[in-house]
Amino acid sequence: MALFVYTCLSYLVLPFGVAFHLLFVWRRAEFRQGFWQRYGWLPQKQHQPVLVHASSVGELNAIAPLITAIISDLKLPVLVTTTSVTGQTRCQQLFSDNERVSCGYLPVDIGLANWLMLRRVKPRAVLLVETELWPNLIATCAAKKIPTLLVNGRMSARSAKAYARWPWLVGPMLQKLTHLLVQDQTTAQRFLELGAQTASVSVLGSLKYDLVIEDSELNNLGALVNYSVPSGLCWVCGSTRSGEEVSLLRAWAQLPEPVEGTLVLVPRHPQRFEEVADLCQQSGLPWLKYSQLKSQLNQANGIETDVDVDTYNAHPRRVLLIDTMGLLMHFYHRADVVFVGGSLADTGGHNPLEAAALGKPVLMGPNCFNFTQVCDQLEQVQGLRVTTKASLLADITELLTNPQLRSSMGAAGAALVNKERGALKRHLSILEETLEQALNQ
């Protein structure tokens, strides 16, 4: 009955959703790709793949080692679906050279779209990453006896409180999942309180610790990154959200004179590039977009441009705005200090392990509820420092003027990442067992 009500409401709002989608398509060209995929018409490039749904870039980066392992160890093809355009771009960057992986958009959660997708794709199993819980999709998979697993599952206190408002829908949905493979005991307890079956919940650790950073991927833009950050210290602020850049620019401008180098701003969403560009302009600091510096390098290679970077290069306190997606890890690799965004803003923070794995000292704001356990562990080993808008200037000043502190924090974070690896093997073992059971049945 609960699912029936949810489904009816989904169909009622569908016309408004389609109208909103069409408005996005009209206003923003990037939303034109995959239009029909969002209503179930997914590609049939693979034969009975494992369908992996990761909403956006962060989830996809976390699950990438598992996708690779499914292909190499289990010898199975994979269809990766995302919700966001940036997630789709990242999927192409990671797997465009692998013909065993195809990418697409997950349809809206209505029965007809899910039925069409599953009929076309015929997946062996469906893996939902972190908190991607879709009642109709899960119910349709259960009806078709398709194993459905939540992998690298997490549940913040805020999310658990929100889900608890709909017990008539959430409890039955969780009980239809074949397995809930979660990151920590706290998350497991929250899922159990929401109605998950005890036998289906397993604590396996976080796949984020098993991330693989290929040197070749980082080095393929090495010359351009070094050209963008020509000299001095480099403070990279990654995945920044609305309201954070003002504080970061202010702190950068107020640093003591001995500090020279580049502040690199990497907004989380491409639709904010122009907004952040306006903030850079208002700061009074010399600044450029990454795309402009790329043009300048092209000029050096014989391609004419009208970009003048002399003032930018000469100034001891410059700002670089990254207005191109997919470059975060490249600039983390160049950084002396990393600030991970979404944590001064009240959005829960983003993944600090990407920077920690590269041996970088990490700064985050107090709002880290999306990565509570990870941040607590990094803070305990002194690989991460929690700051606030009031203490940001003092904290970044200490880090940029103390190379020994930067080195010790970076080493502590990298050691923690290496110590906590292993969730990948545990996930893969349960997935292999589940697929064998489904085949026997």
Give a brief description:
The chain is α/β, with parallel strands linked by helices and 441 residues long. The protein contains 20 helices and 14 strands. The protein folds into two domains: 30-206 and 421-436, 3-Layer(aba) Sandwich (Rossmann fold), CATH 3.40.50; 215-419, Glycogen Phosphorylase B (Rossmann fold, 3-Layer(aba) Sandwich).
What does this entry look like structurally?
With 441 residues, this protein is α/β, with parallel strands linked by helices. It folds into two domains: 30-206 and 421-436, Rossmann fold (3-Layer(aba) Sandwich); 215-419, Glycogen Phosphorylase B (Rossmann fold, 3-Layer(aba) Sandwich). It is built from 20 helices and 14 strands. The protein has helices spanning 2-27, 57-72, 85-95, 111-121, 135-143, 157-163, 167-175, 185-194, 215-219, 222-228, 244-253, 273-283, 290-300, 310-314, 328-334, 353-357, 372-380, 392-401, 403-419, 423-440; strands at 50-53, 78-82, 101-105, 125-129, 148-153, 179-182, 201-203, 233-240, 261-267, 287-289, 317-321, 337-340, 362-364, 384-386. A seven-stranded parallel sheet has the order 3-2-1-4-5-6-7, with helices on both faces. A seven-stranded parallel sheet has the order 10-11-9-8-12-13-14, sandwiched between helices. Helix 4 crosses helix 5. It is globular and about 70 Å long. Mean pLDDT is 88; it is low at 301-305.
